[in-house]
Amino acid sequence: MDDYEKRKLGIFNQLNFFQLVTGTVIPVAGMLRNHQFPMMAWIVACIPAVVSILVLVLNARREYYLAQIAYFVGYPIATSFVYFWGFNMGAELSFMLYGILSVFFIQDLSQMLFALALSMASYFGLAVVCKHYTYQLATANLYFYLFNQLLALGFIFYGLFLIKKENNGYQYSILKQKEEIAQNEQLLKHQTEELMMLNSFKGRLFSIIAHDLKAPIYALRNLFRNMQQYDMPAQDIKSMVPEVVTELTYTTSLMENLLLWARSQMRADSVKPQPIDLAGMIEEVSRLLRLQADAKHIRVTVCGDNPVIAFADKDMINLIARNLLSNAIKYTPDNGKIKIAAQRKPGGAELYVQDSGLGIDEEALQKIRSNIFYSTKGTSGESGTGLGLMLCREFAVRNGGELLIESHPGKGSVFTVKLPAPE
Known about the structure:
about 425 residues; alpha/beta; five-stranded mixed sheet; 15 helices
């Protein structure tokens, strides 16, 4: 039995209980106040109360089908028997209650129509056709008679109220379930899209990694093989080293980004914010990437306020600064200019990298802002995975900040990271 059926059963038992109480109290009270009626008449008048007891016992034993038969067949027959005995207690309106409840409680259409027809036929026969009774409660005790009529009306309205209330609650629960299903559907759709994008990204990422790892490994292998087999002079070895160093520099950055990305996916709550000096950090990052910039004769200018304090995870912001400066060097042609700076702002701090490089067109910017995998070759043919910029955006957001990009093709780009200040 589902939750809705349980609530209907609760209403059914509640109405039965009230009918049991009134069906017992009224005949007993009438018997005590009206000694002119035979005892047998009052015993017959208590038959509907016996039906109520039977229905409650069957429901308690989980014989729900038999309980419905006892109520919707037994009650009209028992009430009709009281009237045929010649005892009119003014309970004709109860048949309307049986008919109304049969529509709500009986699911089978044929059974519902039978119960409804039985109740209406009984009402018509007893209230309209039969007019002569041996015992008339209206004559013997008008107050009891009126009370019975009002009680029957009260049961009808109370039953309708409970049915209406239950139907409204049921409809509300259905609407709520539909809303939850729609929300879950949207969430599932969103998660499916994210999963597809992530799988696509992983496939392309590992394809690039598999390809790009070959270059530095082969370069090292060739260098050591030549040193071993051909006894190469130091001058020749020295001429090959810059190319190997360049390959290893890129590979080191790639592997670091990859490891941090993997860790960020497995440990979403690993942010450890603390007060950090952005000015000192960009000085350190510029020294770290000086050789990469010198190889392309790019002038890197470090400027800004000193100190500039932000409240963020030090390792994550350090990675952002390295990736942004490395990307600027990658996409800036030889003899270009790059400016990296940190400055205080109301309520926070900013770190930005401005270059005189190739710039980014609007279509590529939309992909980057939507976290769609995007990467192109650098001005000297440098490879890339697009992972670094994705990490920059993700880490900035997870530290309570944001990454802003302004770029014009052929005029360079400005990458700005906004971070909160210590409280």
